[in-house]
Every structure is written in structure tokens, then in C-alpha cells.
Design goal:
This protein is of the alpha/beta class. The protein is built from 20 helices and 17 strands. An eight-stranded parallel barrel has the order 5-6-7-8-11-12-14-15, surrounded by six helices. α16 crosses α18. The chain is globular, with a radius of gyration of 26 Å.
Length: 527
């Protein structure tokens, strides 16, 4: 039987639960699991076999959080960990959040969705000033109702040389996401294709993942060349690279989500990635990450165990001090459990029936938004609504006459999508949708700004990961909202994932540890 010595140096094996946990948490060192009779303990470090020592049950190598996931992801994006914070729209993934992550050597995506180009440009000015040369991404969201806005956002990214975008909510490819990618293609001195504009595509369906895993479609490229928006050479080079460098598989997440099980959809996209890579013979293999439901170390460890190259968190970051949302919304988030969420109509894709996952506890938004959807499906326009129903909307949801709501809609659309006003004049159903989207859109802004009169209407995008995080952080220093900083949350989740993964390594050897050691927690609150 292998044995290790009775440690003659400063450190000896620990057999008490707290001591063993401390040894297991020394992730940068080799850890030996030992026995002394019926007692099982642990010690970190080295040592030579000695028949007079303890029985050696297992040895596991160093397992710091930096070994989780793909080294290629870390190298490509210039970060320390295979971890990313996803974009939360309307600037909830704020400049402060992106800067905090970048300064910690980590990747974050700015929440550009829902923001006008001049507001996004202002954020880019901040990044250029505060984090020059450090990694960050900007969101590019599919905007079927505002195609002009999507095009203007890509114009801005190309003009400002934004080198990484997180493309989200795409149901199919648009000319704009293709143009962003292809406009950055060139050859290096050895003739290899270099993609200066990188894309992280967030998807929830294998068929959408396939669009980003394959080269850009020929018909879109031909149109862009004909319009003079990319060159013929760029269109030629586009046939040799996938549209995206990274594919984030989004499972049961906040906001836009199909609520698919992570284990099912992630495995399917990993197989799809491998099949397409073999078929097309890419020089570099696209990476696949996991998102949705990641609010605890166990969740992250499971994602990496499935083969994810990186992980993306979302909901948990919204309660952090750097998040660009109100203290009122953060307190609601911090009280949420794992079942306090519901699906509700999405403002940006209301007409086609798309939904977002939102907080249910503390707000009536899911119920009220669902009522608007029922009315839209039932009636042909605002004039067709029963009078009692219209009065109820004006009193409970709009807090003003519907005519005033329409005036606000028209004022907004004149600067964003004036063609929508003409469509509404011709089709009462269009006008109805725009008025209902006024409420759906503003409800998110009321939450961001902490409008005290609208707490019951707050639309807060989040999913069960928020409840998982709150449960994990309970009684620790990360439980109070004022202590939650985004980089610290990232570090603690990744350290916890490494700890959980180390325990799985030990379990695979047959060594049995106390079940109380399974739980990695942040440091407790001071007494």
C-alpha cells in the first residue's frame, strides 16, 4: 500500500472537516487524500513514500480555476479565465461593469441592445479612455422591427474599430451581422485568413448555431458586394472561415430564451461543431460555450464537464454594484429564489409572439404583459377594444389616456423608425402593437431607473440562476448587494467550480470524503 510520510516540515495532514476543506481549497497545490486508521484526511504539497507514514488513498494534481475550459478562448480574447459576463440590454451591462471585468483580466460584453448609436458611442469613448488595449465586447442584437438601428449599430462598430461583438437573439442571419464579420477579413503575409472582427454568437437552437458555424451565405455576400459594403476579396475570404469564432449555447436564461435543458442543447451543438469542422476543414476550431442557469459553482463545473470551452453568466451580474440598474431592482433580485420567474412577451419581438424570462416575485409585469398579448391576439385594433378593457389599461398600466401614449410613441418613432408611423396610420393592428410595446419597453426602463411609482410594473430580465446564486451566497460576504462586485463574483464562482471539479477527480479514484466537504462557499459575513 502506498504511503506518505508523517510530514516533518511545517505542514501535517489534517483530519478535521475544516482542515480537510482548507487543504482541498489550496487549488494551486497537489493534494493527497490520506487515511490514519478509519480517519480520512488531506494534505497539500509533496513528499516521498515512507512505510512509517499515512496510507495514501489518492493524489490529485493542482487544479486552479485558470485550467477550466479552453486555453484557446483565453488566448484569443486575452483573458485569465474561460469566463465571460454576457450583455444585459439597455446598458445594464454597464460601462462600469465592463471596465471592472477588463481591469481584472476578464471579458465582459457591453449591454448595447436597446440603446441609440450615440449612447453606444459614448460608452466606446469611455472604454477608449479607461481600458485602452484591454478586452471587451459589445452586444449586437437582432432587431427585426428596427432594421435601421441594427445597420447603424454595425456602422458605428466598424467606424470605431470595435473588434469583438456578442451577437444575440438572431433567428436567422442578417446582412448586418455578416457585414460586420466579413469587413474585418484580410490575408496575412503567409496567405492565411485573418478575422480582425470577431463574433461570439449566442444561440439556443442547433439550426441557428449551424448558421454561425458555417461561412457566410453566398447570396448575402453577393448583395453586400453589389452594394459596395464589402469588397470582392473579403467575400472570397469569407468562404474559408466560420461566421463566428465562438458559439455560446444559451439554455434556461433570463431575457430571450427557449428554456432548453443545458445538457441537451450544449451536447447537440458540440457534436454539430465537430461535424461541421471536419466537413469544412477549418484551420481553427470554433469554440462552444455554455450560458443559462449558471449561478453556482456546481453549475459552472457541470458546464465544463460537458465540454464547454467557456461559460457566460448573466442574471447574477445584474445584482452587482457595477450593474446599470436601480438599487430597487437589485434588492428584488437579491431576494429571488429558484422558482420566482415567469415568461412574458418580449417588447422587441412582440408581434411574432417571442417571450423573455423575467422576475415574477415583487412585480406584476408578467401578468400584465401577458394580458396585452391576449388583447393583441383577440382584437384588430385599439378602437375594437371593449370600453371597460380600454379604461382598465389606461388606469392600471398606462397611467394616462391611450391617445397620449400614442403621441409619445410617435415622437419616439420619428427619430428611430418613422416608417412605422405610416404603417400605423394604415393598419390599426400595427398601432395597437406599438402602443402595447410602449408599456413593454418602458417597464424595463422603469426598473433600470428605479421609478418609485412603477415598482409593480418592473420588467427585470433574469432566470433561475439568480435564485441559485442567492442560495449559494447566503450568509456569506456576497449576500448583501453592496458587497457583490462583478469581478469578485466571477473569481468566486470559478474557484468554486475548480473546487467542485477537484472533488469529482477524487471521487473517481474511489476515495470517499465527507459529504459536508462538497459545498464551496465564499467567506462568511463578519460576526
Amino acid at each position: 500500500m502506498s504511503r506518505i510520510p508523517n510530514w516533518q516540515g511545517e505542514r501535517v495532514p489534517r483530519f478535521d472537516v475544516d482542515g480537510v476543506r482548507g487543504e482541498l481549497r489550496r487549488l494551486q497545490d497537489t493534494c493527497h487524500i490520506v487515511a490514519d486508521g478509519d480517519a480520512v484526511g488531506a494534505v497539500s504539497g509533496g513528499g516521498e513514500a515512507d512505510e512509517g507514514g499515512f496510507e495514501l488513498l489518492a493524489s490529485v494534481p493542482p487544479f486552479p480555476s485558470a485550467v477550466l475550459g479552453s486555453a484557446a478562448f483565453r488566448e484569443a480574447h486575452g483573458v485569465r479565465l474561460a469566463y465571460m459576463t454576457g450583455a444585459m440590454a439597455n446598458g445594464i451591462a454597464s460601462e462600469e461593469l465592463v471596465i471592472a471585468m477588463a481591469e481584472a483580466g476578464l471579458l465582459a460584453s457591453f449591454g448595447a441592445a436597446g440603446l441609440a448609436p450615440d449612447r453606444i458611442a459614448s460608452a466606446l469613448n469611455v472604454f477608449e479612455s479607461k481600458i485602452p488595449g484591454l478586452p471587451f465586447a459589445c452586444n449586437l442584437i437582432h432587431s427585426p422591427a428596427e432594421a435601421g438601428l441594427e445597420r447603424a449599430t454595425v456602422d458605428l462598430y466598424l467606424d470605431r474599430e470595435v473588434r469583438l461583438v456578442e451577437a444575440s437573439a438572431f433567428l436567422g442571419l442578417t446582412a448586418e451581422v455578416v457585414r460586420y464579420r466579413v469587413a474585418g477579413l484580410e490575408r496575412d503575409r503567409d496567405g492565411r485568413v485573418v478575422a480582425r472582427n470577431r463574433v461570439i454568437a449566442k444561440v439556443s437552437r442547433p439550426e441557428v448555431a449551424a448558421l454561425f458555424l458555417r461561412p457566410a451565405p453566398r447570396e448575402i455576400l453577393d448583395t453586400l458586394v453589389a452594394e459596395g459594403r464589402i469588397s470582392s476579396l473579403q467575400a472570397e475570404l469569407a468562404a474559408r472561415v466560420p461566421l463566428a469564432d465562438d458559439i455560446t449555447v444559451e439554455a434556461d436564461s433570463g431575457g430571450h430564451t427557449d428554456r432548453r435543458p443545458a445538457a441537451v442543447v450544449t451536447a447537440a451543438v458540440l457534436r454539430l461543431r465537430d461535424r461541421i469542422t471536419r466537413e469544412l476543414g477549418y484551420a481553427s476550431v470554433p469554440r462552444v460555450g455554455a450560458a443559462g442557469g449558471l449561478g453556482s459553482p456546481e453549475g459552472l463545473a457541470a458546464a465544463f464537464a460537458m465540454g464547454a470551452d467557456y461559460v457566460v453568466t448573466g442574471s447574477v451580474n445584474q445584482s452587482c454594484v457595477e450593474a446599470g440598474t436601480s438599487p430597487e431592482a437589485k434588492e428584488l433580485l437579491a431576494r429571488a429564489g429558484v422558482a420566482d420567474y415567469a415568461m412574458a412577451p418580449a417588447a422587441d419581438m412582440f408581434e411574432i409572439g417571442a417571450e423573455v424570462q423575467v422576475l415574477r416575485r415583487g412585480t406584476m409585469y408578467p401578468m400584465r404583459a401577458s394580458r396585452l398579448r391576449e388583447l393583441y391576439r383577440t382584437y384588430d385594433g385599439l378602437d375594437a377594444l371593449p370600453d371597460a378593457e380600454l379604461r382598465r389599461l389606461e388606469k392600471d398600466m398606462f397611467h394616462m389616456p391611450v391617445d397620449e401614449v400614442w403621441r409619445e410613441c410617435a415622437d419616439y418613432l420619428r427619430t428611430r423608425e418613422p416608417a412605422q408611423i405610416d404603417r400605423a396610420a394604415k393598419d390599426p393592428k400595427v398601432k395597437m402593437a406599438l402602443v402595447f410595446r410602449w408599456y413593454l419597453g418602458l417597464s424595463a426602463r422603469w426598473a433600470v431607473h428605479g421609478d418609485a411609482d412603477r415598482v409593480r410594473d418592473y420588467q427585470v430580465w433574469c432566470g433561475p440562476a439568480m435564485g441559485a446564486f442567492n442560495d449559494w451566497a447566503k450568509d456569506s460576504r456576497l449576500f448583501p448587494v453592496e458587497n457583490r462586485t462583478v469581478a469578485d463574483v466571477a473569481e468566486q464562482l470559478m474557484r468554486g467550480a475548480a473546487y467542485v471539479s477537484r472533488l469529482r477527480q477524487i471521487g473517481a479514484t474511489g476515495a470517499v470524503l465527507a459529504s459536508s466537504l462538497n459545498d464551496y462557499r465564499p467567506a462568511p459575513l463578519p460576526s
